[in-house]
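User: I'm putting together notes for a lab meeting next week and I want to include a structural view of one of the chains we've been expressing. I don't have a solved structure, so I'd like a prediction I can at least talk through. The sequence is below, exactly as it appears in our construct file.
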Amino acid sequence: MRVHTRSDRSAQTRSRVVQAHAHIAELTGVDLPLRLWDGEHLGPADAGFVLVLSDERALRALLWPPSDVTAGEAYVYGWIDIDGDAVAAMATGERLAAALPRSSRARLGLAADVLRLPRPPRHPTDRRAHLRGRLHSLERDRAAIAFHYDLPERFYETFLDERLVYSCAYFAPDDDNLARAQRRKLDLVCRKLRLAPGQRLLDIGCGWGSLLIYAAEHYGVDATGVTLSRTQAEAGARMISERGLAHRARIELRDYREVDGHYDAVASVGMAEHVGPDNLPAYSATARRLLRPGGPFLCHSIVTGDAQHVRRGTEDTFLSAYVFPDGGLVPPWRLIRALQQGGFEVVDVEQLRPHYAKTLRLWISNLEAHHDEAIMATSEVDYRIWRAYMGAAAHSFDTGALGVVQVLSRVPGGQQEWPRGRAWMLTEQ
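Assistant: Thanks for the context. Below is the predicted structure for the 429-residue chain, given as structure tokens.
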């Protein structure tokens, strides 16, 4: 009787990986670019990226059970690596998922190929979000925000601009400079709000305070921001102090539902995504309560490209599990409806989708260029979560699956006439 050696088993497994790869290409039309653990390359050489398999178990870790969580975890926990363009890799993954055969027979044949491969062990760590309590209660929202935003400031510095603007930039034609594009976006928000010296500005979900600082410095307003991220609040307060603006700008660690007072203008950039689709009317009513008659409200939010599609943030997806727990998205019309239900008159809607696709590509490039600093600030796992998340997001903005809109609305009443047209709100910076 012949005894199968470890070398024999390895050769047999390698043959099965090659067979599974060929079967996937035959059934789906998607020829995955793979680099095996021994250096051999399978699939096209011009895809812009290569999936690097760490060992014989990696392909099964990537493909079984079939879901974006499985594929994301295979990358995050090191079973595979992405050598090259992360956005192209995510686009190919989406094509593969969409092209999986519908017939049970074909699916069973493909599953049999994958399940003959060695089973990988359980992941050594668990970076999923584990939130408790009622969805979008104050306590649970604090935990969700902390999960995403309370990584060390140094980590965000590795890919954001110097102002730490963590939202879609606004690019001029033929300008790929991230810092200029973020400054242009800040100025665009201020112009749309028609800010003037002495006015009181509220920024709901203010991040590290970039809009507060810009509006105080360039428009002379008295600016207050609120956030649930302790990391952002502390770092933002320090930056405000360093610029000598503590008398005109401040950040408070509180929920938007806990804010009181009256303001001349309210901005909310990248915050509506955390409110929850069912809570958008109450969110809008809160902004309305805080504004004087005639006061403007600018809501800048990621939206879905499908008019019927709503994400609630509780789905079993990589994004919900590892990046934005409880983060919800709605199509633009639902956001506009919520503003009207809250008592606002809609003034202007602008789609910034191409700007966010470019923003994300620049963030990914910065993150990759500062890999070592990023993992020193957090970990290799966190670096991979964010690279995968931003690559998938860039692809979604490229294809129109996601968009990002700025909706400018105003409280009815007030004495000030609003100018006609849009020229007054456009920035030239």
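A couple of points you could mention at the meeting. The chain is about 45% helix and 15% strand. The CA atoms of residues 340 and 407 lie 11 Å apart.

User: Perfect, that's what I needed.
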